[in-house]
Specification:
The protein is of the alpha/beta class. The radius of gyration is 13 Å and the shape is globular. α4 links the parallel β4 (82-86) and β5 (104-109). It has a five-stranded parallel sheet. The chain is built from five helices and five strands; from the N terminus they run βαβαβαβαβα. α2 (40-50) runs parallel beside α3.
């Protein structure tokens, strides 16, 4: 029996429109309900109001960064499923902490193949 992902709720925390818009469109076309936060504080507030099935976050964000957002979210939602996507993984000092964080289900480096990302999302949400 094929698993349907219709209306699974995904939050994308990303401040770069050049990545955010195509990813949001791609996920929407693949039957996910997508919400967008352009900064971590907005993302945390949205999670408090909606409780998403999956959160996709960048690491480098204005204000508080992606790692701080992850820590704030898992403090209140320890079962949260999280994917990190960044263009600067190897350069970020938080990379080792992200890699060893049991709440981070996957890590991708930009540019991301959306089809590979989609497969990983489906695995996580099963």
């Amino acid at each position: 029996m094929k698993k349907t992902y219709l209306f699974k709720k995904i939050l994308i925390i990303e401040d770069e429109d050049i990545f955010l818009k195509p990813l949001s469109k791609f996920l929407t076309m693949n039957q996910f309900q997508v919400n967008i936060a352009k900064n971590a504080l907005t993302g945390i507030d949205l999670q408090d109001n909606i409780n998403f099935d999956l959160i996709i976050t960048d690491l480098r964000l204005e204000g508080i960064n992606g790692l701080q957002a992850i820590n704030a979210i898992i403090a209140n939602y320890p079962d949260a499923k999280i994917i990190v996507i960044s263009g600067y993984l190897k350069e970020d000092s938080e990379f080792n902490e992200i890699r060893s964080n049991p709440h981070v289900n996957a890590i991708f480096e930009k540019p991301v193949d959306f089809n590979i990302l989609l497969e990983r999302i489906k695995e996580i949400l099963q």
